[in-house]
Amino acid sequence: MTTLNLEEVHTMSEFQKGLEAYTYCTLCPNYCRVDRTAGDIGRCGETDSVRVAWSGLHRGEEPPVTGEKGSGMIFFCGCPLHCAFCQNHQISAGLTGGDSSVGITVSIEELASMMIALQKMGATNINLVTGTHFIPSIIEAIKRARNQGLVLQIVWNSSGYESIEGLTLIDPYVDLYLIDVKTLDAEVAQRFCALAKYSEIIRPVMDFLVARHSEVTFDEKGNMQGLLVRHLLFPLTLPATKEFLHYFAKTLKNHAWLSLMVQFVPPKGDVTFPEITEKEYDSLIDLMEELEIEEGFVQELADNIPWIPDFNRDVPFPSSFAEVSPYFLALKQKAMHQETR
Ligand code: SF4
Questions:
Q1: Of 30, 133, 216, 269, which has the most beta carbons under 10 Å away?
Q2: Pick from 228, 230, 205: which is nearest to 216 by CA?
Q3: C-alpha R_g of the chain
Q4: 318 versus 126: which is more confidently predicted?
Q5: pLDDT surpassing 60 at residue 227
């Protein structure tokens, strides 16, 4: 079994809880140990000021996550992992490399109000996208939102690049993990995630989650709880995806559902990759059958919508499956007005 490099394991005794965690930040496996409250910035590209790139309803998630009217998304700016072909590169690079005009800085109270606003829009859940580097603020916001009447489930939508310390903090507040297992192969991780050690980090992360969420359940409204594991086939890496499927069957199958995606859309036109062939696709379906992986979702080859979100727009996604939160829009307009004064 792959284990973490012991030199990089940060003990719980060193780890500070609450907002103090920002003062010596070890919220993700980068363990930057910077003081983000002083304006210092680690690999995630963000200080302790929460920045949100977009909030609204999204109907493009897996069926139980989308529900009837859409998942209530909150996209955070910055990211601890900087994948070479990130579709959200406008916002994931953070203050140091992204488009700093995209996204607004919000207080914890405003973040709580954003959750309440999504509930008023009829959201199925609150879907927190790449929130790892803001875990302490998110926890405070969830607590305040609960006090203000938030009843929706919390979805933790993550790259899988998490520290056990950070997960320990956020786990009591999470109902469903929508979590990537991008690859278990170091070379593939280096090429597509720009970080070979992702392949080592992800196994203990999944072990931690399975120990706490040992089965998928659904409530009377059809809301899913537990683990929904996403895996995207990267171009020309079929053997790595087959390795992942074997791992899933052996380790996760009885505890999690699978969402297998096969449509890779590089965000920049200067890079092209061959598309997956029907023969390759069929070989994955055959392997899933052989491994008796039955619970979950598989993207159809024909489902491809080659859409790259544009977070400069009020609705970054095709309007047929997304709707901006009026509360978020009002905050954005207020921020723009303050900038021009
Ligand atoms: S959250 Fe950011 S500052 Fe903190 S350890 Fe991760 S990358 Fe570094």
A1: 133
A2: 228
A3: 19
A4: 126
A5: yes
Domain of 240, in residue numbers = 52-340
Residue 318 lies in a domain: yes
**185 occurs within a structural domain:** yes
Question: For residue 4, is pLDDT > 90?
Answer: no
Domain count, the chain: 1
Distance CA 277, CA 279 (A): 5
Contact 79, 194 (CB under 8 A): no
- Ranges of beta strands (E only) in 77-175 are 104-105, 125-129, 153-158
Task: Give the residues surrounding ligand 1 with Cβ less than 6 Å away.
Answer: 25-28, 30-32, 34, 36, 42-44, 80, 133
63 Cα to the center of ligand 1, angstroms: 32
pLDDT tens-digit series, residues 263-282: 888 776 667 788 889 999 99
Residue nearest to atom 1 of ligand 1 (CA): 133
- Whether residue 139 is contained in a domain is answered as yes
Among protein residues, the one with the nearest Cα to ligand 1's atom 6 is 28
Distance 26 CA to ligand 1 centre (A): 6
Establish if 43 belongs to a structural domain. no
Q: What is the pLDDT of residues 125-182, one digit of tens each?
A: 999 999 999 999 999 999 999 999 999 999 999 999 999 999 999 999 999 999 999 9
